[in-house]
């Protein structure tokens, strides 16, 4: 009974499109769709971040982070990927120590998965290694 009463007070579904309104104000609906997609992407990234912080090893966290940054950047994945933050910020973002981030990056470089162009650029040499180590989230 409570749900029936609540249901009668709820507004129409936000996904309902009035054809007349759609014809007169198409940009409003395209903007709404864009915002909805951005929100869904944000929720998806947040869920992935919770998984990374809670269940992954240091190597898995760093590999997942590098794949995510490469996916977000435009261009060829084998080119240098600009890291948008320092190693200290990466460590904070991944809930790790900066020493562990540095050791992991060095191990990935020695293993041939990445090459370090400079302090803020990394070139992904073998993306499959990063994806396998990072797991799927």
Describe this structure in a few short sentences.
With 137 residues, the chain is mainly α. It has helices at 2-9, 19-24, 26-55, 58-72, 87-93, 98-110, 127-134; strands spanning 80-82, 114-118, 121-124.
Question: Explain this structure to me?
Answer:
The chain folds into two domains: 41 residues; 78 residues, Orthogonal Bundle (Arc Repressor Mutant, subunit A), CATH 1.10.10.10. It is mainly alpha-helical and 137 residues long. Helix 4 packs across helix 7 and helix 5 packs across helix 6. The chain has a three-stranded antiparallel β-sheet. It is built from seven helices and three strands. The N terminus is likely disordered. The two termini are 40 Å apart.
Please write out the topology:
Elements: H1 2-9, H2 19-24, H3 26-55, H4 58-72, E1 80-82, H5 87-93, H6 98-110, E2 114-118, E3 121-124, H7 127-134
Antiparallel strand pairs: 1-3, 2-3
Helix pairs in contact: 4-7, 5-6
Question: Main traits of this protein?
Answer:
3-stranded antiparallel β-sheet; mainly alpha; 137 residues; 64% helix; 7 helices
Secondary-structure content class: mainly alpha
Question: Which architecture name of the largest domain does CATH use?
Answer: Orthogonal Bundle
Biggest β-sheet strands, sense, barrel: 3 strands, antiparallel
Secondary-structure element order, N to C: HHHHEHHEEH
Q: Helical segment tally?
A: 7
Distance between the termini: 40 Å
The top-level CATH class of the largest domain is: Mainly Alpha
Which regions are unreliable across 5 or more consecutive residues at pLDDT < 50? Answer: 1-11
CATH H-tier superfamily of the largest domain: Winged helix-like DNA-binding domain superfamily/Winged helix DNA-binding domain
Give me the Rg, rounded: 21 Å
Strand order in space, largest sheet = 1-3-2
Helix percent reads 55-70%
Strand content: 5-15%
């Amino acid at each position: 009974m409570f749900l029936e009463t609540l249901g009668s007070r709820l507004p129409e579904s936000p996904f309902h499109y009035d054809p007349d309104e759609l014809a007169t104000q198409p940009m409003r609906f395209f903007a709404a769709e864009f915002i909805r997609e951005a929100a869904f992407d944000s929720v998806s990234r947040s869920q992935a971040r919770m998984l990374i912080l809670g269940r992954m090893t240091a190597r898995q966290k760093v590999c997942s982070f590098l794949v995510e940054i490469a996916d977000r950047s435009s261009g060829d994945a084998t080119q240098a990927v600009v890291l948008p933050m320092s190693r200290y910020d990466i460590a904070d973002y991944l809930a790790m120590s900066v020493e562990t981030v540095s050791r992991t990056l060095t191990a990935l470089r020695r293993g041939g998965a990445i090459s370090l162009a400079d302090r803020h650029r990394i070139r992904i040499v073998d993306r499959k290694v990063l994806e396998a180590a990072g797991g799927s989230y």
